[in-house]
Amino acid sequence: MIAALVGMLLELEEYDPVFPAPDERPEDAIRRLRPPLIVVLDGQLAEARSDLFFARCVQAGARVAMFGEPVAADAVRAAARERRAAYFAMPVERRELGRVLDEVLADAG
User: Which residue in 12, 17, 11, 51 sits closest to 37, CA to CA?
Assistant: First the structure.
């Protein structure tokens, strides 16, 4: 449900979000979609913080933006910093979310 809502917000900011299929493994989705930016909505998930996940993102040439709730912000921020990924607290305003993702993509050069 959260992914659908964030997807709607991204569409309002003129992004074209795509999602893994139900029960699709992250590595299969990355290989199939080849996205320029991977947004991790729940940075507390073990799969989203694994070295293998980040290696596959790098191999696909994708930037990673990790979002976290204030409760887990320190742990998710540390995992992102370790892997040189962008970390942001989940914005509550649509335009702020768009600005954050524009910033991550601009940093990719």
Answer: 17
